[in-house]
Each structure stands twice: as structure tokens, then as C-alpha cells.
């Protein structure tokens, strides 16, 4: 059993009582539905025969008890259906509300050089679609109980007509279930489900790739070309979904044909029997076949469920937690690169220089644990560093949402909103971004901000992070000389006041005055 399957089994265990309640309620709903329609058929046929015979027979016909039974079964079916839906869906929703955060936290805690390689579209498809499929699988666990309840009730009511009526129903239903299972487990269905999932993942990935390129699409007039590509992908998805729907329709058609043949045989073999009992059996058979529909659907979706679980398990296994111990004390942090050694502490003022492509950004990504550590470099605790990357991608939300990411969960709980706001405004001021309000919505990926504003928002976020060493990758790139000068002065004042170490990458000469040591990557 895979690690995810073991975890999923444990995560859903607290909700088994609710799922069991849903199953028992589903079985009772099917029993009530079969009995309701069967008794109704018997009652209507009996009342019609009594009326046809004459007034005396009509007077002797007891319609009170059947009427009461019909009302009781109708009310019971409604109440039991509510219990079934509430228990099943509540259990599934609550279980997946535990699974989703756990999976996300596992991805976050995993080695970034593994997780950053994951396709965003495919990961999104697994994280959203496949988890939803697993949710539906929990809800569908009541299908067998529902089918068994309806089938057993139909068999018992058929026995009132004759044992052969029950045998005919069992044979017809057996053919339906056998055909449904075979069609639901065909290789073609599996291939269609996998193809649909692959197309959906590719479509999402393409969307994620295109979304940040909106200005380029307008500048190079690429909209028609990209829309044609998206339309082709949508067409492929529609074809895949249509194939799935067609196969589902085929399974339902087989069930309807089998039910029709079963009813025909029932009427032909029991033409001389009591008409009310024949109506009772015929309607019971009809609802018995309908009771098997959830089971046929579960058969048809079993491969979909299994494939979804396999894909989530694969994502779960890829997001393995880090096994290396990176909690070295700050005083023991010695950075050694190409024979050059530097002590990393709150007094560090290190400039990493070198030509483009020399590996400067790769080095700081290694320090942050985003890449595997080389043989000549020690292990470092990621919490030692606050990073402002070269290309800082803002969170979809407000300025406040982006800055709150820098605070620990404990800080968000213990500090008041006013205190946090003061700290945020101070960081924005040092980053020369005072023109922006905290509650300004910046759009998906900071689409409403300029490139320089995104950069300075990333710097403000790094300044708010409680870490002893600040890492700035090209912090003044794209800034005018005046803004650059003010930013450098504010950074120098803040670094000396805290105090705080600095690792700087910059091709521009002005920021280099913040550093006294140089690590040459050439």
C-alpha cells in the first residue's frame, strides 16, 4: 500500500461512522422506494378491480391501511434521503478538508528542487480535480448498500406474486450488472479517462503559461493564434468528455433494455395471476432496477477513482519531506565557494559578483535550499535568510496579503492589526513604495503593478521577515537614479539599526557600497 493510501485511510477513519450512517440510510431509502411504488401499484390495481366489481366490493375494500402505508413510506423516504445526503457529503467534505491542507503542507515542506519542477497545470489538476474525485468516491461508498437494499426489497415483494417472479428479476438484474461491470471496466474506458485527465492538465498548464504574457500577446498580436490553440485543446477535451458520456449512456441503455425484457417476461409468465400482485411485482422490479443504477455508476467510475488516487499518490510521493538536517546555528555558518570562505552572520556584508550566467542566483538559491547543496558547501537553515529574488512574483490579492506572508504564524496571532500595519508601512517606506495602500488589490501575479513596483514589494516583504541575513538579488534593477539612491540609504539605515547581515547580487555600482566583502564567481 502506498504512503498516500495509508494516510488517506487514516484521515478518513474518524468519519467512518458518518459514512456508515449514509450507507444504512441509503439502503433504507431504496427499501422505502421499492415498497412505496410496489404498495402503490397493488393499491391502485386493487381499488380499480373493486370499483369494477361494484359498490359492495368497494365498501369492503380497505383503503385506509394502504393509504397510511403509502404516506408513511413517502415521508420515510424523504427523511432518510436527507440523512443519507447530509451524512455522506458532510463526511466527505470534512475528510477532504483534512486531506487537502495536509497535501499542500507536504508540498511546501518538500525539497524545493523537486517541487519546483512540478508542472503547475498538472499539479493543479491533481490537487483540485483528483481530490474532488476522491471526495466523490467517499460519497459513492453508500451505492452498494443502496443497491442491496432496493434489490432485496424487490425480491421479497416479487415473492408475493410467485417464486418464479423473483427468479426472473434476479436473472434480469444479473445480466444488467454483469454487462455494466464489463462495460465499466473496459480498456477503452480507462484510456478515455486517462486521456481526459491528460488533456485537462495540459489545458490548465497552457493557461498558466499564457496568463503572465498578456502584455506580450497584445504587443505581438498573438491573440488569434493562442485562441486557436486553446480552442483546439477545448475541442479535444470535449471529444474526450463526449466519449465518456457516450459510454455512460450505453450502460444506461443496456440497463433499460434488460429491465424492459424482464418486465415483458414477467407479464407473459404471470398473465393469469392476481392483477394487484402482478402490479406490485412489476413496479417493484422497476424500482429494483433503478436501485442498481448507483452501483452501475460506481462500477463505471471505479477506474476513474483508482486513476485519481494513483495520480494523487504520485504527487504525494514526489513531495517527500526533506530528510537533511539544515538547522545549523548561525555562528557555524561558513560559506565556502571556489576556495573563498565567508562567515555568515548579522555583520555580513557580502557582494556576489560575476558575469551574467556565472551562477550567482544559483548560489543564493542553494543557500535557500531551493537547489541541492554542493559537496564544498555546508548545510544551511532556510530560516536564516530573507530573500528578495530577481523576479518576485506577487500573490494574487492585496498589498497587505503579500506582506503578511513574511510574518510567522505566531507573529500574526500575537501582534495586533495596528502593530502589523505600522511594520508594513515602515517596510514599504524603506522599499520606496509609500504610494501604495495596504488594501490595494494588485491582481493575479501583480498585474496592476509595474516591474519596479513588483521588485520593491518583494524587497518590503523580505525586510519584514524575521531572519538574520537579507538576500537581495538585483534590488535596484529598473529603478531610476533618484529612487535607487533613496532605496540604498533606507536599506543601509535599516540594516545597521536591526542589525542584519546582507548578501547582495547587483550589476549596478551604486548598491555595492552596502558591502565590504566580495565573492567573485568568475
Automatic annotation (TrEMBL):
Topology class, membrane: Multi-pass membrane protein
Annotated ABC transmembrane type-1 domain residues: 26-197
Top-level taxon in the UniProt lineage: Bacteria
TM ranges: 21-43, 63-80, 138-157, 163-184, 250-269
CC per GO annotation: plasma membrane
Location of the ABC transporter domain: 310-518
SUPFAM superfamilies assigned to the protein according to its UniProt record, in alphabetical order: ABC transporter transmembrane region, P-loop containing nucleoside triphosphate hydrolases
MF terms (GO), sorted A to Z: ABC-type transporter activity; ATP binding; ATP hydrolysis activity
Principal subcellular localisation of the protein: membrane
Entry keyword Signal: no
Alphabetic keyword roster: ATP-binding, Membrane, Nucleotide-binding, Transmembrane, Transmembrane helix
Subcellular location: Cell membrane
Identification of the protein by name: ABC transporter ATP-binding protein
Organism field: Asticcacaulis endophyticus
Organism ancestry: Bacteria, Pseudomonadati, Pseudomonadota, Alphaproteobacteria, Caulobacterales
Amino acid at each position: 500500500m502506498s504512503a498516500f493510501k495509508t494516510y488517506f485511510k487514516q484521515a478518513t477513519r474518524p468519519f467512518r461512522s458518518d459514512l456508515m450512517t449514509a450507507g444504512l440510510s441509503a439502503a433504507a431509502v431504496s427499501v422505502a422506494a421499492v415498497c412505496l411504488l410496489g404498495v402503490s401499484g397493488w393499491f391502485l390495481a386493487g381499488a380499480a378491480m373493486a370499483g369494477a366489481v361494484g359498490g359492495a366490493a368497494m365498501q369492503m375494500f380497505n383503503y385506509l391501511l394502504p393509504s397510511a402505508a403509502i404516506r408513511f413510506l413517502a415521508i420515510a423516504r424523504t427523511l432518510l434521503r436527507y440523512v443519507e445526503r447530509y451524512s455522506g457529503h458532510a463526511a466527505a467534505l470534512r475528510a477532504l478538508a483534512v486531506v487537502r491542507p495536509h497535501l499542500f503542507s507536504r508540498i511546501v515542506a518538500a525539497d524545493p528542487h523537486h517541487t519546483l519542477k512540478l508542472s503547475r497545470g498538472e499539479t493543479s489538476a491533481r490537487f483540485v480535480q483528483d481530490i474532488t474525485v476522491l471526495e466523490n468516491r467517499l460519497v459513492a461508498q453508500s451505492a452498494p448498500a443502496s443497491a442491496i437494499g432496493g434489490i432485496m426489497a424487490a425480491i421479497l415483494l416479487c415473492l408475493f406474486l410467485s417464486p418464479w417472479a423473483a427468479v426472473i428479476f434476479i436473472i434480469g438484474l444479473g445480466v444488467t450488472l454483469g454487462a455494466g461491470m464489463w462495460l465499466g471496466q473496459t480498456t477503452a474506458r480507462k484510456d478515455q479517462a486517462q486521456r481526459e485527465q491528460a488533456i485537462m492538465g495540459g489545458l490548465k498548464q497552457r493557461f498558466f503559461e499564457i496568463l503572465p504574457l498578456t502584455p506580450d500577446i497584445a504587443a505581438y498580436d498573438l491573440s488569434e493564434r493562442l485562441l486557436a490553440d486553446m480552442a483546439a485543446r477545448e475541442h479535444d477535451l470535449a471529444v474526450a468528455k463526449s466519449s465518456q458520456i457516450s459510454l455512460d449512456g450505453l450502460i444506461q441503455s443496456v440497463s433499460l433494455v434488460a429491465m424492459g425484457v424482464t418486465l415483458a417476461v414477467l407479464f407473459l409468465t404471470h398473465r393469469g395471476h392476481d392483477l394487484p400482485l402482478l402490479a406490485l411485482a412489476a413496479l417493484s422490479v422497476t424500482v429494483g432496477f433503478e436501485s442498481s443504477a448507483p452501483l452501475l455508476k460506481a462500477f463505471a467510475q471505479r477506474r476513474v477513482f483508482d486513476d485519481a488516487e494513483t495520480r494523487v499518490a504520485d504527487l504525494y510521493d514526489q513531495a517527500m519531506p526533506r530528510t537533511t538536517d539544515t538547522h545549523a546555528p548561525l555562528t557555524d555558518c561558513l560559506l565556502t565557494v571556489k576556495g573563498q570562505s565567508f562567515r555568515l552572520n548579522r555583520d555580513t556584508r557580502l557582494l556576489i559578483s560575476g558575469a551574467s550566467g556565472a551562477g550567482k542566483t544559483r548560489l543564493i538559491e542553494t543557500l535557500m535550499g531551493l537547489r541541492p547543496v554542493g559537496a564544498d558547501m555546508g548545510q544551511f537553515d532556510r530560516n536564516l535568510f530573507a530573500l528578495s529574488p530577481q523576479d518576485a512574483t506577487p500573490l494574487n490579492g492585496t498589498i497587505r496579503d503579500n506582506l503578511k506572508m513574511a510574518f510567522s504564524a505566531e507573529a500574526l496571532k500575537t501582534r495586533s492589526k495596528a502593530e502589523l500595519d505600522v511594520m508594513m508601512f515602515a517596510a514599504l517606506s524603506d522599499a520606496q513604495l509609500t504610494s501604495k495602500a495596504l488594501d490595494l488589490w494588485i491582481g493575479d501575479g501583480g498585474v496592476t503593478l509595474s516591474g519596479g513596483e513588483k521588485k520593491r514589494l518583494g524587497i518590503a516583504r523580505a525586510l519584514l521577515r524575521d531572519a538574520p541575513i537579507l538576500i537581495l538579488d538585483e534590488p535596484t534593477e529598473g529603478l531610476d537614479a533618484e529612487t535607487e539612491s533613496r532605496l540604498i540609504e533606507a536599506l543601509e539605515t535599516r540594516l545597521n539599526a536591526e542589525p542584519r547581515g546582507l548578501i547582495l547580487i547587483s550589476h549596478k555600482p551604486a548598491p555595492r557600497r552596502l558591502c565590504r566583502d566580495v565573492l567573485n564567481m568568475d
